[in-house]
Amino acid sequence: MFPVDTHTHTVASTHAYSTVHDYLHVAKQRGIRLFALTDHGPAMADAPHFWHFVNMRVLPRVVDDVAILRGIEANICNAQGEIDYYGDYLAELDMVQAGFHEPVFPPADIALHTEAMLACIRSGVVDIITHPGNPRYPIEQELIVKTAAQCNVALEINNSSFIASRRGSEPSCLSIAQLARQYDAQLVMGSDSHIAFTLGQFDKALEIIDAAGYPRERLLNNSPMQLLRFLQARGHNTVDDLLDYFQHG
């Protein structure tokens, strides 16, 4: 059991089916101590409005000993690596993820995918690249992994990619995990839950990570403190209260 999940979607993204309350209930049942709300950025057709993310400040930090991270899964929008959330509002979020999504950035070629993802990683505003092993978006993996390691940006092994979406991701995700072990890049597992029942489910992602020989103890899912310290090192002072909670609460 890993007590941290960095990737969930609520009914605010209308192709998902659970509320915050649903996630809290399942988290409590499964011993999840910390999970992130990361609905799709506003450039997606059915994503919540920009104000949804601005107003995340109203969310409680901890409910019944389960802590909530205020996050986003933004869209990589162009070759310059720009995302669809920006400005001073970024500093109010606990975590910023970004990835390719077909309605916003149609699949092109390996050169353009790599250029865009590299620019996104180097931008300094994105903490985690979601599902970089998507076979619809081939990338120069070694260059991406080395750059992510240098910039302290985590790469996600997305459990949903092996079950509900992005079929055929296993070979590319295995290769990314092997390169992450080689270059000491940071990996994180995300359930990419679109319904609360899959919160904290990492079975398929863990198979890939183990097959690559990537050390489990390096995963950001190991403990709330491990993820929160990573986010603090990335400049997210908003998590200081949660760090204090898990240290002393």
Describe the 3D structure.
The chain is built from eight helices and eight strands, in the order E-H-E-H-E-E-E-H-E-H-E-H-E-H-H-H. The chain is an alpha/beta fold and 249 residues long. The chain has a single domain, classed as Metal-dependent hydrolases (TIM Barrel). Strands 1, 2, 3, 4, 5, 6, 7 and 8 form an eight-stranded mixed sheet that branches. The model has no long low-confidence stretch (mean pLDDT 97).
In terms of topology, how is this protein built?
Layout: E1 4-5, H1 20-30, E2 34-37, H2 50-54, E3 62-63, E4 66-75, E5 95-99, H3 110-122, E6 128-129, H4 141-151, E7 154-158, H5 170-183, E8 187-190, H6 203-212, H7 224-233, H8 240-248
Helix pairs in contact: 3-4, 4-5, 5-6, 7-8
Structure at a glance:
This protein is an alpha/beta fold and 249 residues long. It has helices spanning 20-30, 50-54, 110-122, 141-151, 170-183, 203-212, 224-233, 240-248, and strands at residues 4-5, 34-37, 62-63, 66-75, 95-99, 128-129, 154-158, 187-190.
Order of helices and strands: EHEHEEEHEHEHEHHH
What is the CATH architecture term?
Alpha-Beta Barrel
Secondary-structure-based class equals alpha/beta
C-alpha-based Rg, rounded: 16 Å
Domain module tally: 1
